[in-house]
Design goal:
oxygen-dependent coproporphyrinogen oxidase, alpha+beta, 10 strands, two-stranded antiparallel ribbon, homodimer
Chain lengths: ~325, ~325
Amino acid sequence: MLTTLEPKQQQENLLKATKSVFRQMFDDTCQAIEQLDGTAFTEQPWTRENNTWVMGESKGDSIYIDRALLGGTVFEKIGVNYVAINGELPPGMTFQKAGALATDEADQIDSEKGTPFFATGTSFVIHPRNPMVPIVHCNYRYFQVGKISEPQYWWFGGGADLTPAYLFEEDAVHFHKAHKAVCDQYDVAYYPRFKKWCDDYFHISHRGESRGIGGIFFDQLNHLPAEQLLEFVTDCTKVFPQAYLPIVERCKDMSFTEENKQWQRIVRGRYVEFILTSDRGARFGLASGMVNHQSIFNCMPPAASWTYDDQPNLGSQEASLRAVLKQPREWV
Amino acid sequence: MLTTLEPKQQQENLLKATKSVFRQMFDDTCQAIEQLDGTAFTEQPWTRENNTWVMGESKGDSIYIDRALLGGTVFEKIGVNYVAINGELPPGMTFQKAGALATDEADQIDSEKGTPFFATGTSFVIHPRNPMVPIVHCNYRYFQVGKISEPQYWWFGGGADLTPAYLFEEDAVHFHKAHKAVCDQYDVAYYPRFKKWCDDYFHISHRGESRGIGGIFFDQLNHLPAEQLLEFVTDCTKVFPQAYLPIVERCKDMSFTEENKQWQRIVRGRYVEFILTSDRGARFGLASGMVNHQSIFNCMPPAASWTYDDQPNLGSQEASLRAVLKQPREWV
């Protein structure tokens, strides 16, 4: 059906469908989380006025909404956002310079004038209270560069990855299996490729450690028509709560000590290190000025800790986690 | 006297004297801190083997010592180090690329082959327990590039700056006055220049806020013979405990609430943001691979926190601190 439409109309439909998929994920996943926790998210919409973000509903066609859940019964802090921005990179800034992309395909447009782009996506970072429940991050996004009706370059990106403070192998297997099942429906080459991409990307290079036990990650995905990739990404957005929430249910009432809680804070400290030194989204937001910092830091943990020597005792659960982080494993 | 010596001998004497000044500061200041706290530092020497740092006394001529004070009565966490490294930047890496310098004067040597350098310095980051006592950072360093006996480029850098969670103006004035007095002995232009340099450098650009209420900072200082600048830097190292410890004595027994403590964690979160996104020393260490990450992160706070909206209530002490951070003040 779509192919019989004018290209402009086809492009308009694609953007509408893409925004709607991410909005649906934003709403459905928040609802599932609220139900599990019994605590409501607060919502903060932002609007862009004179090149700065101010609190309030957008009057234009760019939408930026943060949601935060603080001090829940199960979740200590959750940061979520949904975005559909019609914007322009500041003159001289490029996607590569801004840290949004590893390569410069998106930067062919003369950036002296300021590069027009459209971006939509949704992002979740969940910090559970119980240290036995892993942190999770999930983000799916669509970017295009150039005129909104005739982009010169576009891509999908995103993924989901798990960061346990205490590793239960069955949870790692469940999380990976759920994502592999979605990948396999589209291309059996996807999961091995996106699993490795995730291990490579969520790597804290100065520590020589992975951030967690991975999941899937991809970026600059545009090898098929956007409509086809959107179907795949849609299924990824749907599998996320199925991949994560059962783990929460299983572990949320496990007993833990203050020592376990302190170890969770150490793990969260590593998380902070990754976000501030390596995360593409955070770097893009900070460098481009296109995202307000309150939204960027919505993903930060409620409490993180550093000590001088955080090497765990030999043979401990903490040490066996560290060993896995030094050497990513195959989970399925 | 010095000028009658051979240049090589003169250079040898300079390096010996410089290392000794920083070593003296390292030892004397740690001793003063231990006396105040009643808690001893632990010491960890590092040595470089096969291009990685391993724990242990150095067998070569490069010295790297960390000291940490954890869980003291007055100080919650202190990270200190002393270094005298005879090293080589990895091929292709430059001081500018590594984030160590804003300009490329030090990078004229062919970096394809790996740039030989010598660096010595000492660094203190002190996180007090009581939120009424400010965090302090102090670092003085000497760098030179090229052959150790005939450097092609050299400079002194460093400074000291105060980061209060609660601002007592008399403490800010005391800290600045002490540093101004040293500066004025050498050049009345120093303090205004180094005070502004400090405000400009310790600025968290994504927040549009200063890290704290400043102090002094300088880098690539080489406008006078090194022997003369060393005298100035020596006096800076000596004034540091006099500038800071009386503030600790005055505030360490003030009463505080859990709300004050939580605000301190928020301020420490900003501190983490600065270190990981902007700090020259941390960036150099991470990018060059010349510093092990355990030492780099010795400066990190014992507990930091982020929340969604950390805007303090109008008219509160926290709000008046934020106002000062948005608009640096003259303190003397």
